[in-house]
Design brief:
34% helix, Rossmann fold, alpha/beta, 10 strands
Length: 230
């Protein structure tokens, strides 16, 4: 069974008395454990597609199923539960809470889940070990480099061992060395935990790690290809 299934999906946005169609007739399936990128020029619909898969937005037409859930039929509470229990998000702007320490930022998604303090501590330490930041537990985001902040964001995304991680331009603000470090970390998580990763990107460094590349052009799937021996 497909992990994610999208059929005939359209996304419209109202503009004045008319509308702008950001996504047009999208048909896609994703299997569990994929390491896939949605690529294309700015304005092609990459982020919109990622947001709909993550239930942050809803399609105008067609169907989108994520882990057996029909996104459009979910209530706000059900969407929130799907995200908190099964999906991790990585954004290019990090979205870390500045007044919290690294530990507290990574622990934050676990507060919403029914976990004991001991379980949360183990999960946070494991996640920070994954990204090589166990020595920065008490630091705050302002004391970290851009690369370290993004590694905290990755740790926060994977701390609950989600089924799916959605990464929107995760290397946009990073230099080449930090980009490769982060991409290797995500690839290892994908291989070791079977976590599905879907990227929105136009970064050649990210594309070089992908196993599948879906190219969007003017809101439509232009190409869908297996790459890098995937």
């Amino acid at each position: 069974m497909a992990h994610i299934k999208i059929n005939g999906m359209l996304k419209n946005y109202p503009i004045g008395r008319g509308k702008f169609t950001a996504l047009k007739g999208i048909d896609l399936e994703f299997a569990k454990g994929e390491f896939t990128g949605i690529v294309g020029p700015s304005g092609s619909g990459k982020t919109t597609l990622l947001n709909i898969i993550g239930s942050l937005d809803v399609q105008s037409e067609g169907s989108v199923e994520v882990m057996g859930k029909d996104i459009k039929s979910l209530s706000a509470k059900q969407s929130s539960r799907l995200r908190s229990e099964h999906i991790g998000f990585i954004f290019q702007t990090y979205n870390l809470l500045p007044v919290y320490t690294v530990y507290e930022n990574v622990e934050f998604p676990l507060i919403l889940l029914k976990m004991s303090a001991a379980e949360r501590k183990k999960a946070v330490l494991d996640a920070l070990d994954w990204v090589g930041l166990t020595d920065k537990i008490k630091s705050r985001p302002s004391q970290l480099s851009g690369g370290e902040c993004q590694r905290v964001a990755i740790a926060r995304a994977i701390v609950k061992k989600p089924d799916l991680v959605l990464a929107d331009e995760p290397t946009a603000n990073l230099d080449a060395e930090n980009s490769h470090h982060i991409l290797k970390t995500m690839k290892k998580i994908n291989e070791d935990l079977g976590t599905t990763f879907i990227f929105s990107t136009h970064d050649a460094k990210v594309i070089s790690y992908l196993k599948r590349k879906i190219t969007l052009l003017d809101g439509k799937v232009d190409k869908d290809e297996i790459v890098n021996g995937g």
